[in-house]
Amino acid sequence: MKNIATFILILSWIYNLNAQSEMQLITNTLMDYIEGSTEGQPNRLKTAFHTNLNLYSIKKDGSLSIWSGSDYIEDTKEGEPTGESGKIISIDYENDAAVAKVEISHPKSKSTYIDYFMLLKISSKWTIIHKMYTKRSSNKSFEIK
Q: What residue numbers bound the domain in which 51 lies?
């Protein structure tokens, strides 16, 4: 009985270690995006983004805006920090798919944007395949329980 309990404990430890490892790998990809964008490091964006990534948002007139990831990267100037800051709000993943929420603050314009990402683990590497973003409103979000 003691051997079974020890075995279960070891399996649980391995599972938790793997979960922490996956969370760190996803975090690393998101930090490549955040720091690549805010610190003027387009190569980090290339590392984080899938080549076919698009960025989606809603224009003031209510229509859909689509911006290619390659144009976004091109718009990021090497060595030119933007003065923005970012932080990861949440990450949820299962197997080889993840979603994440990131907050980007723009001190000059006193605005905050919320980025929603879809990530996939492609060839053992987490990659952002999709980004949607919106300006933070005064409305508080809520969690469904």
A: 2-135
* pTM metric for this prediction: 0.80
Average pLDDT of the residues of the chain: 88
Residue 23, phi then psi, degrees to nearest 5 = -60, -40
Task: Name residue 91's beta-bridge partners.
Answer: 100
3-state secondary structure of 54: strand
| 83, two tokens | 């003065």
In a domain, residue 141? The reply is: no
Question: Mind listing the pLDDT tens digit for each residue in 66-117?
Answer: 999 999 999 999 999 999 999 999 999 999 999 999 999 988 888 999 999 9
Query: Which are the contacts of 8, defined by CB distance < 8 A and separation ≥ 6?
Result: none
- Read off the CATH number of the domain in which 63 is found: 3.10.450.50
Let me know if residue 145 belongs to a domain.
Answer: no
Q: In this predicted structure, which of 3-7, 14-18, 119-123 has the lowest mean pLDDT? A: 14-18
Which strand (E) or helix (H) includes residue 89? Answer: strand 85-94
Helix (H, G, I), strand (E, B) or coil at 99: strand
Residue 10 in 3-state DSSP?
helix
